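Contributing new records

If you add data, match the layout below exactly. Sequence lines come first and carry their own label; structure lines follow with theirs. Keep one chain per record. Anything else will be rejected by the validation script.
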Amino acid sequence: MNLIKIWSIFCLTSLGLLTQGCVADDLSVCGVSMHFKYTRNIDGVDKFASSINTINLYVFNEEGIFVEEYTEAKDSLPQDFTVFLNLTPGVYDFVAWGNLGDDYECPTFEKGVTRLSDAQLSLKRNAENTVSTLPGTLFHGGIFRKEILSLDLQMNQPLEMNMIKDTKEIKIISSGLAIDDPTKAAEFEYGCSITSRNGDYRFDNSITGDTRLQYIPRETIEGDDNQLVSDFVIMREPSDRSTASRLIVNRNSPSGESEEELVNVDLVPILLALAQERDLELMDNFEIELFFDFTHSTFSINIPGWDSESNTGSLGVVGGRW
């Protein structure tokens, strides 16, 4: 066999190996890999595997046009979860939603048509803009014009997306309501709710629109003194108060209609005071204690470090009168 024939066989063999690289079982050697984590929480540790079981990753090109969607849903995703992307070199925007379930509405995307600027996610609500069930936890992640995919597709270009939680769990514990019949109080006598303009989102996770939602909690009566416990799951609460969120407690008539408003306060300053200078965006769990004094028709809120006598502190108002 002459030298020319040997060289030809070598070249054909090499070409065959290269063309098989991106369809091999080991996809990590090909294209672009997107690794996910969730360290944007108050503890600063990666809680991805214990928090997120579904990922919807959307890819948009340099013109902001939808290119592809990658979806992964399992009972649990691994801590080192990675999606491998088959993309040509270029500039891309990447948006991911974690745990995108039936509580949320997302548009239907059409390749080559849908624009990133038109994409919006919304929390489902009824015709009266009431959210009467506890929404499932939701996470967001994004990489915008950060990466230019220009490497040889035979090499792996790793990207990393750090998720953030978009839902807040808030527990309101109301004491002193003088509940006579615990079996009926949660349904008729008193009602706790949160209203907020935080139900609609662009794909960069910014809040859009001014529709005010009313969140209805899961309510129970607990303890020997019949505390009303109201458990909420609501959407994002930026510290700039742009959501104009309110915490409201009503005393209702036997028919269930609102009879008297006992509490109507700005919610975000309370959350900021409870956060104690920690990042409000990273905190996802709050407990607020309300104390009612029907002798004097007053209520107060228990916040650690708050001076209720002088009524001073970052909140501005610790209580009120109805």
